[in-house]
Design a protein that fits this description.
heterodimer, A: 399 residues, mainly alpha, ABC transporter involved in vitamin B12 uptake, BtuC, two-stranded antiparallel sheet, 4 strands, globular, B: 251 residues, alpha/beta, Rossmann fold, 2 domains, 4-stranded antiparallel β-sheet
């Protein structure tokens, strides 16, 4: 279906179901229950899941296929965001032009950065991209203040030109919308003690992510994708086979820059503000972590990695010592305090510590990331079946 | 006029004159061997032919066109394929994919942004790759990880990848270096088959006399960066100058 083989179609359908049903799936605990704080089914976080999913899918096209580790991808995310916010200031609060221009500018900036950085490979390439990203951050922070708003960043103002929109009513604030439907509008469905929220912005972002995911599958399975894997495998053989690796890597770089720009545009569509910190090097590092945590070079891995990291960032960081004390209230007093003291460094602001430990465990024991973990579990369950079937390895690829 | 004409080629690395006044003419549809003792400049010469090095002087013409100053991938697109001393294949890819890449390169040129169609949707490429795997007796290994194969199989695959592009000139750089006797003989048989069944010119750089004398129609002996003699194998064997340069003895 859709020009994909059976296995890829199944994966796409699975991702479609997961994203569409996310408001249910991420809210398994009833409102007001002790576990409710582990619910992730609120619009703000769900939007972040899919947007960073897009960012990581794009990054994986470069890093997973060609092996070129960019350490400056947040720059394209930032450029996309600035382009999007300017569309909102100049043209219209409709998010379509904003997202579109985010993609275009992310791609254009990637052409420049890629053209220069791809002259080197390995660690030198990574350092060049890092340098570019940090320069972009510094420029946005200070020199380019008239364009970027400097430290404070940019938001749509009531007195912006917005040539396509009519004048705002008195006292109204400009709100991001898609043909009049506001991004922040939600439909709430109370079911028993559960409350499910269906948010316009989330569904827009989810559809865009599905489309991005589909395009990524096509790229992975295409001759172009195969050439990118050839770049990673053996550039020497590639050149002596009559192929020029440079345009291949540049194309991959630009495509992943466009994905980053798309993610940046969507971020602005969901939350209409930009600041230079979006381009800071930690943001570039985060997408590397997401991809490695989920599984480099796999289709679904980056999405899982993005979800896992954003979940930890938002949920674990919210746990505080009071919550810990209620959890461990059943223990004798002295022991309770001890347990809480031991766990405390890993929660709240210490969530990075938890992330770091999980990251180390994954890299050491599951070099293929969460995807490898999933495959191992699946193998455990299907071992009995596999005995009567012929082994998977010898299976011919569907055409 | 040969398909490959090397004229007065010289190359210097600092104080070392690696090549001087190299003249070489490889006739079409022959197997031409270049032999010589260590340090004779064989590899330097080969690197000048495939664009890895640019000679300081002289010219290298392939089929009437100069190869000098062209990038390796452009030279390949002109019809020269190279087999390396240690097999250079795409280790992370399957054997089938390894075979398809050169066919795509031959069909689409050095860059083609074909990012939406499926690899296996290109029936012509799939068929050509399958036929070549069949010819190399590797059809049963098509789904194998290329890196997991034995050295001899990697060599076969690499030669197959080069042949799948239907090159006019096949350059082999010590194709049997470090191989066991049996693998060496298999490789010789394979190359002999290729020579007989295809319209192809082969230039081979080799250390192993057994390989050279079983394959070559003509031999050039290189010593200290310059050709000593060029002749038929039978005559090279008895040439006292060659014995002296090659074996380092005046027996």
């Amino acid at each position: 279906m859709f020009g994909l083989d059976r296995k890829d179609t199944r994966l796409l359908i699975l991702v479609a179901i997961l994203t569409m049903a996310a408001p249910f799936l991420l809210n398994p605990f009833p409102e007001g229950s002790a576990m409710a704080q582990f619910n992730a089914g609120y619009p703000d976080l769900m939007q972040r899941f899919v947007i960073f999913g897009i960012f990581a899918i794009g990054f994986n096209i470069l890093f997973g296929l060609t092996g070129y580790l960019s350490f400056g991808h947040a720059a394209f995310l930032g450029v996309g965001s600035y382009a999007a916010i300017w569309m909102m200031k100049l043209l219209t609060m409709n998010v379509i032009p904003a997202i579109f221009m985010g993609v275009i500018f992310g791609g254009l900036f990637a052409v420049i950065v890629g053209y220069i950085s791809l002259r080197r490979s390995g660690i030198y390439f990574s350092i060049l991209t890092l340098a570019f990203a940090q320069m972009s951050f510094a420029l946005a922070y200070s020199v380019l203040t008239p364009i970027t708003g400097g430290e404070t960043g940019l938001q749509p103002k009531t007195n912006d030109p917005r040539i396509l929109d009519g004048t705002l009513a008195d006292g109204a604030t400009p709100k991001a919308n898609i043909f009049g439907l506001e991004m922040s509008s939600s439909f709430e469905l109370p079911l028993g003690s559960w409350l499910f929220t269906f948010n316009t912005g989330y569904y827009l972002a989810a559809f865009v992510m599905l489309a991005s995911f589909y395009v990524a599958i096509r790229i992975f399975r295409s001759p172009f994708g195969m050439m990118l894997r050839a770049v990673k495998s053996n550039q020497q053989r590639m050149t002596y086979t009559g192929l020029n690796p440079r345009p291949y890597t540049l194309a991959a770089f630009v495509i992943s820059g466009m994905y980053a720009g798309l993610a940046g545009g969507l971020m602005v569509a969901m939350d209409t503000q930009v600041g230079p910190e979006r381009m800071f090097w930690t943001a570039s590092g985060e997408v590397v972590l997401m991809t490695i945590l989920g599984g480099v070079g796999t289709l679904i891995g980056p999405v899982l990695g993005a979800g896992a990291i954003k979940y930890m960032e938002n949920i674990i960081s919210k746990i505080n010592s009071d919550i810990l004390h209620t959890w461990f209230a059943f223990l004798p007093d002295g022991l309770e305090d001890l347990v809480v003291t031991l766990i405390y460094p890993f929660i709240g602001k210490g969530w990075h510590l938890t992330l770091g430990i999980i990251f180390m465990l994954v890299v050491i024991f599951l070099p293929g990331g969460l995807v490898e973990g999933g495959q191992r579990i699946a193998k455990l369950f299907s071992r009995k079946k596999a005995d009567d079937n012929t082994s998977d390895v010898a299976k011919a690829p569907a055409e | 006029m040969g398909i490959l004409e090397v004229k007065d080629v010289g190359k210097r690395f600092g104080g070392l004159q690696a090549l001087s006044d190299v003249n070489l003419s490889v006739k079409e549809n022959t197997c031409h061997a270049i032999i010589g003792p260590n340090g004779a400049g064989k590899s330097t010469l080969l690197n000048c032919l495939i664009g890895k090095l640019i000679p300081d002087s002289g010219s290298v013409m392939f089929d009437g066109q100069s190869v000098l100053g062209r990038a390796p991938h452009e030279i390949n697109q002109m019809g020269i394929s190279r087999v390396f001393q240690t097999p250079e294949i795409f280790g992370d890819l399957s054997v089938m994919e390894n075979m398809m890449i050169p066919i795509f390169a031959k069909r689409d040129g050095n860059f083609e942004l074909n990012a939406i169609g499926s690899v296996f949707g290109n029936k012509d490429v799939v068929e050509a790759a399958e036929a070549m795997l069949e010819e190399m007796n590797m059809a049963d290994k098509r789904h194998m990880h290329a890196a997991a194969m034995s050295r001899g199989d990697k060599r076969r695959l690499e030669i197959g990848m080069c042949l799948s592009q239907q090159p006019r000139l096949l350059l082999l750089d010590e194709p049997t270096a470090g191989m066991a006797r049996a693998d060496t003989n298999n490789t010789i048989d394979l190359l002999r088959e290729i020579k007989e069944e295809r319209d192809i010119t082969i230039a081979i750089i080799e250390h192993d006399m057994h390989v050279v004398f079983s394959l070559a129609d003509r031999i050039t002996v290189l010593a200290q960066g310059t050709p000593l003699v060029e002749d038929e194998p039978e005559k090279i064997k008895g040439n006292p100058k060659v014995r002296e340069a090659y074996l380092g003895e005046s027996a």
